[in-house]
Request: fold
Amino acid sequence: MKIRGEKISSLTAYDYSLAKLVDAAGVELILVGDSASNVMAGNETTLPITLDQMIYHATSVVRAVKRALVVVDLPFGSYQGNSEKALDSAIRIMKESGAHAVKLEGGIEIRESVERILSAGVPVMGHLGLTPQSIYKFGTYTVRAREEAEAQKLKEDARMLDETGCFAVVLEKIPAQLSREVTESIKIPTIGIGAGPHTDGQILVLHDLLGINREFKPRFLRRYADLGSVIENAISNYVSDIKTLSFPNESESY
Ligand code: KIV
Reply:
């Protein structure tokens, strides 16, 4: 698709019912993101989610998907600093969930883990820029790599992921000009979130795009529906119908 100049659409999904809709709508790549920690479990960061919980989400998504590529995040603590552990974690995800690939956050620091996973025949997607598993190192969720030194490191990390054999890389919350330079300088597709229009594809968190998660309003987010209001209204109508004895009626009874 990169060679053809055709943009790649990606979205997250964490459960069977919504993954089925995402797949049917034509998204090419579904990410079972560790953002499940925020969106599904209500944690403040992505750090608490476990490998077992990621496998549970991934298994549910894989059951629903007929055509999209399913990529699963290796969660915090399952790959950093120990490439053997990284391979074990990736193999558990592939074996137990039936997913097609894994995603890891970071550059040169995780090179050994990336290489070891790739050597086992597991496709790897990289993730650079704002890497939420390192939030306590960054201190904030603001745009990354505005400074020359960080931008330079990001370009080197992207080249390393490309040369090592990753099949794609997520670029999160970096300046549009930098993501353009990275996209033009590597062979593998870049998938952007808050990285401007020049990446080879785009990804958003499903619940943000659908307006289910209403508090989160970053500049890069385009909201395609207000399902939060739709769901809340539907449920409040249900409550009111019960209170006023209009539900269930005769035709809804046996
Ligand atoms: O976990 C996630 O949802 C992600 C995307 C935001 C890229 O990593």
Observations:
- The chain has two domains: 8-223, 227-254.
- The longest strand covers residues 124-129.
- The two ends are 54 Å apart (CA to CA).
